[in-house]
Amino acid sequence: MSSNKRDRAIRKVKPGDGHALRRFRWWQLFLRSLYHLTLPAEDGSTHTWSVDIRHGGDSDDGEVRARLYRDGINEAVSKLPAAFPVPGGVIEVIASGYGLKRCHFIATDGRERQLLPDRSSAEGRRAQLDRRHPTASRVIGATSILILVVALVLGVPQIIEQVTHIPWVAENIGAFTSPIHLPAWANISLLVGTLVASTERALRLRYNWVLDGGLFDGDD
After folding, report:
1. Spatial separation of the C-alpha atoms in residues 52 and 216, rounded to whole Å
2. Which of 56, 94, 170, 177 could form a cystine bridge with 102, CB 3.0-4.6 A?
């Protein structure tokens, strides 16, 4: 997030209402993200800062918001992308089409640190897999990249063909005929694989503007 975007995001932050942070439930695995960070205070004590995001949006208006908690008490709330001022820096929270692409603490000296996912969350379980079975984790990560590259190579030409066959586009720009034509079942399988692969990468806060749909996110 650029400094200008960060300043705009900070201005969006509103005070919290002081409610307590709720426990993470198993059925919230793909509906909620919860991250934690421990920071020292000026008096030498330490506090745990938590960021809670409900991906389905708030019930009142459907907007997705990030809520900031200090030691389990709600301190602030903001629409995404969010930037919460905290002691020693700012916590940035940015969403992608498949979850989060960023939940980092940026210190005043520019150093960055990713917040730790709650152990009960999908992100936390993925992090535990990485710690306990690093080889399997690397294989899964590499497979996700491979699926997205294949989807890009096979899917983009077909999409371009469909777009350029719109009458106005064809008349003013020209029509493109894709050299690749997959059967419906293959395109559906490719779509499902892309969703799974991008979701897996979002669980690790891995994001690439080409592979993970950044062309259509509108934030970059």
Report:
1. 25
2. 94
> What token pair was written down for 203?
């669980």
CB distance 85 to 92 below 8 Å: no
Which domain covers residue 23, as residue numbers?
A: 3-118
Residue 133 CA to its chain's centroid (Å): 23
**50 SS3 class:** strand
- Considering the domain architecture, whether residues 178 and 87 belong to the same structural domain is answered as no
Task: Give the C-alpha separation, 51 to 78, whole Å.
Answer: 11
Provide the number of structural domains found in the chain.
2
Using an 8 Å Cβ cutoff, are 57 and 31 in contact?
A: no
The conformation of residue 26, written as its DSSP 8-state character, comes to G
Cα-to-chain-centroid distance, residue 195: 13
Is the domain of 44 the same as that of 139? no
pLDDT tens, 28-74?
Answer: 998 999 999 999 988 888 999 999 999 877 756 778 899 999 999 99
Cross-strand pairs, 50: 36, 69
pLDDT score at 1 = 77
Q: Which of 103, 76, 69 is nearest to 12 (CA)?
A: 76
Q: Do 112 and 22 share a structural domain?
A: yes
pTM: 0.85
- Where in 31-111 does DSSP place strands (E)? 32-40, 46-54, 65-70, 73-79, 82-86, 89-96, 99-107
